[in-house]
Amino acid sequence: MEDNLALCACAFVRNKGKSVFTENDVLMGLSMDLRWMTYSEAKAFFSAMVTAGLFERSGDICRATFSENGIDVPVAYKPSRELIGKVMATREAPAPKPEKEDVPAQENKVPADMMPTLMKVAVDNGIERKDFMVQSNAISRKLGIFIEVAALYVLRDAGVDITELSDRVYESVKLK
């Protein structure tokens, strides 16, 4: 099965013309762009490829770890339903449950949503809700940061003292 996974991964990489992707690029590419399988099958397939060492994850970035030159890919390659079935079967096999570890309560925390608090501070300091969100979203997209952090920049630029808020936002973002 690993040779077939390597063939599928190579066909995908050649089709896309690059070897570095986000996980979402791979999933959408396998399911929507190439129409080889459903999205849930693509998730299982990608997981199998990572397990087989064909892709290496680094955060959200995935890099192909194989050389495409050594693999002969047929012109109109599409993975067989049999291969997809095998991958899905290995995914659905129940994994042994690890013994329960004592996890500190802090690791189980859900990050608090700070946006309502930041919005209230903005409104209390005379910033329109709409303007606050537009500016926060623009900064978040431009810098590639969490919206809460971008909101702190907007508040700071408006002359608001954010020292008290910054620690709370940091703790919230740290848990995401």
Explain this structure to me?
With 176 residues, the chain is mainly α. It has two domains: 91 residues, Orthogonal Bundle (Arc Repressor Mutant, subunit A), CATH 1.10.10; 67 residues, no CATH class. A three-stranded antiparallel β-sheet has the order 1-3-2. Strand 2 and strand 3 form a beta hairpin. Helix 5 packs parallel to helix 7. The longest helix has 15 residues. It is elongated, with a radius of gyration of 23 Å. The protein starts with a helix and ends with a helix.
The main β sheet shows up as: 3 strands, antiparallel
CATH fold category name of the largest domain: Arc Repressor Mutant, subunit A
**Count of discrete domains:** 2
Q: Segments where pLDDT lies below 50 for 5+ residues?
A: none
Q: What value does the Rg take, in angstroms?
A: 23 Å
In the CATH hierarchy, what is the architecture of the largest domain at level 2?
Answer: Orthogonal Bundle
Mean pLDDT: 84
What sort of overall outline do the alpha carbons produce when their principal axes are compared? elongated
Lateral arrangement of strands in the main beta sheet? 1-3-2
Number of DSSP E strands? 3
Distance between the termini: 36 Å
Per DSSP, the total helix count is 8
SSE series: HEHHEEHHHHH
Fraction of residues in helices? Answer: 55-70%
Strand content: 5-15%
The secondary structure category is mainly alpha
Question: What CATH first level of the largest domain would be assigned?
Answer: Mainly Alpha
